[in-house]
Write a structure and sequence with these properties.
This protein is α/β, with parallel strands linked by helices. It has helices at about 15-30, 40-50, 70-80, 115-125, 135-140, 190-200, 220-230, 240-250, 275-285, 295-300, 315-325, 325-340, 345-359; strands at about 5-10, 35-40, 60, 85-90, 100-105, 125-130, 150, 170-175, 205-215, 235-240, 255, 290, 310. The protein has two domains: about 5-150, Rossmann fold; about 170-345, Glycogen Phosphorylase B (Rossmann fold, 3-Layer(aba) Sandwich). The strands form two sheets. A seven-stranded parallel beta sheet has the order 3-2-1-4-5-6-7, sandwiched between helices. Strands 10-9-8-11-12-13 form a six-stranded parallel beta sheet, with helices on both faces. Helix 9 (about 275-285) links the parallel strand 11 and strand 12.
């Protein structure tokens, strides 16, 4: 039976992994149900569709009733029209009259209010709370001991791997400095400095490619990052679409990820990678992941089996050199990385989301 479903993501203009996650929910459910996204700017949805190759033709854009500009009564009455609402939360919960409310916690949330009578009423509406990784779920579960949290891993769409490999280390990630306290959120600067040291120690015939999505307000800071790489075999690919990124994945032999390095992840777990879609995409194309031993990366990569994990920058360099110099090791890890990536398929994600709705 077709249902009327609403989806809300307060960061829809951010073009990040969380937005891809929520809009893939919209895509999957729109095949069988009437799906609306609460948002006021159509251009943001169009950009998401193009950037992440989403099929949102059957998804309707409707007034953002969760905007502060919308009155409480209007919001409540509108939510009554929906059989289910999926809500990406920063720790706060809406009051809705929809038959079912599903809450997605995309990252470790420090403050979740649960004790007041208002909070208890809001939580009584919640049909399910889900996270994108065990790392995220375990942190949030400690805040919500009375509520079961389950994991639905992000959908990763894998293209056929051509495996036309070159001596490339690849990193894919947003360049972001404005919305978090950490100046170098994805640690691109740290990785650049590590690669420069490797080159200074006579590494030859390899290059480091950083594929970054950069918003207009961050361009000046990003230019400083580019300046720091001058004189070294380091290339930047900016704001590439999914299919263009896949061409890079197909060429790369090694994939680097360093989010969370140097941070107090006990105090700020949100600075670690909550999952790591780009890591899985790279693995699907046969790139060997050499990634930090933190956050969701630990759930994706098993050290020595389908990639390598590191704790220090010295380890990052040493383990990378090991893969570079031993073709058999690279081949074994590459083959296993491709197998592991299939676990996080879009089909598996869609199945879990549909199961939620019909329960």
């Amino acid at each position: 039976m077709s249902m009327k479903i609403g989806i809300y993501d307060p960061y829809l203009d951010d073009l990040g992994g969380g937005e891809k996650y929520m809009m893939t929910i919209a895509e999957c459910l729109s095949k069988e149900h009437e799906v609306s996204v609460f948002w006021d700017h159509e251009e943001d949805l169009q950009e998401l569709t193009q950037r992440f190759s989403l099929d949102l033709k059957k998804v309707t854009l409707t007034k953002n009733i969760f905007s502060p500009d919308v009155g409480w009564i209007e919001k409540i009455l509108e939510t009554k029209k929906y059989d289910a609402i999926f809500y990406l939360s920063d720790g706060s919960l809406p009051f809705v009259l929809a038959k079912r409310l599903f809450i997605h916690l995309q990252q470790p949330v420090k403050y979740i209010r649960t004790t007041s009578w208002k909070d208890k009423i809001k939580f009584s509406q919640v049909k399910g709370i889900f996270c994108n990784s065990q790392f995220t779920a375990s942190f949030n579960q400690s805040k919500l001991s009375q509520h079961k949290i389950f994991v639905i891993y992000p959908p990763v769409e894998l293209f056929p791997a051509e495996l036309t490999k070159e001596n490339i280390i690849l990193h894919v990630g947003r360049f972001r400095v404005k919305k978090v306290n950490a100046q170098d959120y994805k640690k691109q600067g740290i990785m650049i400095e590590t690669f420069k040291k490797m080159v200074d120690k006579k590494l030859k015939d390899w290059k480091f490619v950083i594929a970054a999505s950069v918003k207009h307000q961050d361009k000046d800071q990003f230019a400083l990052l580019q300046e720091s790489a001058k004189g070294y075999p380091i290339e930047f690919c900016v704001n590439k679409k999914n299919k263009e990124l896949w061409q890079l994945y197909n060429k790369a032999k090694i994939y680097w990820h360093a989010s969370g390095y140097g941070e107090d992840l006990t105090e700020h777990p949100e600075y670690a990678e909550h999952f790591g879609i780009a890591t899985v995409e790279a693995m699907g194309a046969g790139a060997v992941p050499v990634v930090i031993n933190a956050g969701g990366q630990k759930e994706i990569v098993t050290d020595g089996e389908n990639g390598l994990v590191w704790n220090t920058l010295e380890e990052l360099a040493e383990k990378t050199i090991k893969v570079m110099e031993h073709e058999k090791t690279w081949k074994k890890l590459s083959d296993q990385a491709r197998i592991r990536a299939k676990y996080f398929s879009k089909e598996a994600f869609s199945k879990r989301i549909h199961e939620l709705v019909v329960k």
